[in-house]
From TrEMBL:
Pfam families the UniProt entry points to: Arg_tRNA_synt_N, DALR_1, tRNA-synt_1d
Protein known as: Arginine--tRNA ligase
GO MF annotation, one: arginine-tRNA ligase activity
InterPro entries the UniProt entry points to: aa-tRNA-synth_I_CS, Arg-tRNA-ligase, Arg-tRNA-synth_N, Arg-tRNA-synth_N_sf, ArgRS_core, DALR_anticod-bd, Rossmann-like_a/b/a_fold, tRNAsynth_Ia_anticodon-bd
Native source organism of the sequence: Stieleria marina
Length: 659
């Protein structure tokens, strides 16, 4: 049930005599936050008055209300202030709807009339590299979008566009050839390959650091001179010179960032040199960055040895990330990694060249686009294809295979320009019917507001993070004082299950609760708390509904029977508020689709859990005054449990029967 959509249709009919675009004005309907203004408010009379000569907004609002046929839905439609129309939903309608909600598995969410084919590209880590916290954000947002869009009735295809073909494989192949012990790798492949990756990465970083020292020093010296000059110029003029002062501030900023870079590079170098063994290795691998690239090129060109190693290593790398997916309860319809498209890349380049869309420039093949300084490079001078080439091939394949109406790329905001260019080129080639959307998201920050990293300076390993969250959850939900109150007592298995559900839920919920485009600070303490906008709070609310039903000794089907006998009647405003809230579930889900923003569902669940908490405070269920009153309240309790549980499951979060 989508109340605003139903009202909007009625409004549109009522507006048809007043304007040529009734739908547009009818869409100006909003939920109110203050019940004094009804449940929904429409403010279209004011802008309409500007279009219609000789009538003021109140008169127009009056005409709309006169034409409006909502007797079956609304108790009142009043005009307030300069011409707001306040609509209050009828109690009988609410009661009837609650009765329907109670037994409905879909929680009154109707499948869309025109289902779309939607491809969701998400998670997509670069295997062989440790997966990081940015990939978890993509995984969690993408998974919940796929669940929600699927539940709304769309045909969703999920695809994990694994980075399984890039330089990181060149790195492990190089590492294996130079430092690997085949027996050790065979015995313990996953940690051993990770070790090789880290070693090669460290050596490459070291070379980069070494190479950056001289340029950094030079930049510092040059900037220092400029700073001195500008300071002297400023001192020489008496007039305040805003522009110069700004320039000076910029120079000083540049200076300090060059100094930081130099210090970071020197620290890296010192760390390697501190260990004579590593220092010697670093010395022996002076051209490692080029050599790693060469290994990657050999792999791409079909070199037998490298291809064999790749085939041997890839399953291990996949096992590693699959462990994390299992833990997160995330799965994909397809996992078509970059390697899958390798044989299609040359054709993509040829097609663009043939159509006159791509040109050679300095030996590379490029697509020049309006509005960008740099072109999209689709083949490098040395013949290598790029990330963009693969994405073009992927799009073509998806068009041919899945016939999508929408393709969603759930990827870090930092790849914004890549996707803008990709979408432009896609249009040029003729993929112009499909809606392409970069569902971008911000960075996860640590408690100090910096991009989250571990002590060693690498992006935090995911598994450790999940373990920490589960441990944090355990300390909150299984603390001895809470456990002492559990009747029957909670055995170890149940405690483990709850800690896991709340801990993993906490990580997911925190990712989803913020609008995806904003950065957010990761705080383990806050995210496992039982108070506030957390998954634990919603899970706890679900558990409370279940415990009330148990104490009363009833269940859903018994409540349905009781409702048939007594019918539903509201005697307390908190009941009505909660009932209306429960009917807004579909609205929340449609809002998620409109902005590809699962936080709309999170906000809804939090508001519903709060409405449920006030209801619990105001209204006795067990000791309700009459049987009839208790029946209505039980219907609310059971439905709240159903809606919250369904909502959590659409976020990919488990509920527990008690906690
Ligand atoms: N593997 C990429 C990364 O980790 C993300 C891929 C996103 N999907 C895509 N079709 N480009 O940065």
């Amino acid at each position: 049930m989508h109340l605003p959509a139903i009202l909007q249709e009625r409004l549109s009919d009522a507006l048809s005599g007043l304007t040529d675009s009734p739908e547009q004005y009818a869409s100006m309907i909003r939920g109110t936050t203050d019940p004094a203004f009804g449940d929904y408010q429409v403010n279209c009379a004011m802008p309409l008055a500007k279009q219609i000569d000789g009538k003021n907004p109140r008169e127009i609002a009056g005409e709309i209300v006169d034409n409006l046929k909502v007797d079956d839905l609304c108790q009142s439609s009043d005009i307030a202030g300069p011409g707001f129309i306040n609509l209050k939903i009828d109690d009988q309608f609410l009661a009837d709807s609650l009765a329907k909600l109670l037994g409905d598995e879909r929680c009154l969410v109707q499948p869309v009339n025109a289902p779309k084919n939607i491809v969701v590209d998400f998670s997509s880590p670069n295997v062989a590299k440790p997966m990081h916290v940015g990939h978890i954000r993509s995984t969690v947002i993408g998974d919940s979008l796929a669940r929600i869009l699927g539940f709304l009735g769309h045909n969703v295809t999920t695809d994990n566009h694994l980075g399984d073909w890039g330089t990181q494989f060149g790195m492990i192949i190089y590492g294996y050839k130079h430092f690997g012990d085949p027996d050790v790798v065979k015995k313990n492949p996953v940690p051993e390959l990770a070790l090789l990756y880290r070693k090669v990465n460290q050596l490459i970083d070291y070379r980069k650091a070494v190479a950056s020292v001289e340029p950094s020093k030079q930049a510092i010296a040059e900037t220092e001179i400029l700073v001195k000059q500008t300071e002297a110029e400023l001192a020489a003029t008496e007039k305040p010179n805003k522009k110069k002062r700004k320039a000076l501030a910029n120079l000083k900023r540049r200076l300090s960032s060059s100094q930081d870079n130099l210090a970071a590079a020197q620290a890296k170098i010192a760390a390697v040199l501190a260990d004579p063994e590593t220092a010697k290795t670093a010395d022996q691998h002076a051209t490692i960055d080029k050599d790693v690239l060469a290994e990657t090129v050999k792999l791409h060109e079909g070199d037998e040895e490298n291809l064999t190693l790749w085939k041997e290593f890839l399953p291990f790398c996949k096992d590693e990330i699959n462990r994390i997916y299992d833990r997160l309860h995330v799965s994909f319809d397809h996992t078509l990694g970059e390697s899958f498209y390798h044989s299609m890349l040359a054709d993509v380049v040829d097609e663009l060249v043939d159509k006159g869309l791509a040109k050679k420039s300095d030996g590379a093949v490029c697509v020049f686009l309006d509005g960008y300084d740099a072109p999209m490079i689709i083949r490098k001078q040395d013949g290598a294809f790029l990330y963009a080439t693969t994405d073009l091939a992927t799009l073509k394949y998806r068009e041919d295979t899945f016939n999508p109406d929408e393709v969603l790329y759930v990827v870090d905001s930092r790849q914004g320009e890549h996707f803008q260019k990709l979408f432009q080129v896609a249009k040029l080639i003729g993929h112009d019917k499909v809606h392409l959307e970069h569902v971008n998201f911000g960075t996860v920050l640590d408690e100090n507001g910096r991009p989250m990293k571990t002590r060693s300076g690498t992006l935090i390993g995911l598994e450790g993070l999940l373990d920490d969250a589960v441990a944090g959850a355990r300390s909150v939900v299984c603390d001895p004082e809470r456990l002492a109150k559990m009747d029957p007592p909670m055995d170890q298995d149940e405690q483990n299950a709850i800690a896991e559900a709340v801990g993993i839920g906490a990580i997911k919920y925190a990712d989803l609760a913020h609008h995806r485009t904003s950065d957010y600070r990761f705080s383990l303490t806050k995210m496992v708390s039982l108070d506030g906008n957390t998954s634990a709070y919603i899970q706890y609310s679900v558990a409370r509904t279940q415990s009330i039903l148990q104490k009363v000794g009833t269940d859903q089907s018994a409540i349905i029977d009781r409702v048939a006998q007594h019918s539903i009647q509201f005697t307390d405003p908190a009941e009505r508020t909660l009932a209306l809230m429960l009917l807004k579930f579909e609205e929340a889900l449609v809002n998620v689709h409109n902005d590809y923003a699962p936080n709309q569902l999170v906000d809804y669940l939090f508001d519903t859990a709060k409405a449920y908490a006030s209801f619990n405070e105001q209204c006795h269920v067990m000791n309700a005054e009459t049987d009839a009153i208790q029946t209505t309240r039980l219907a609310l309790v059971a439905s709240t449990g159903n809606v919250l549980k369904k909502g959590l499951s659409l976020l990919g979060i488990a509920s527990v029967p008690r906690m």
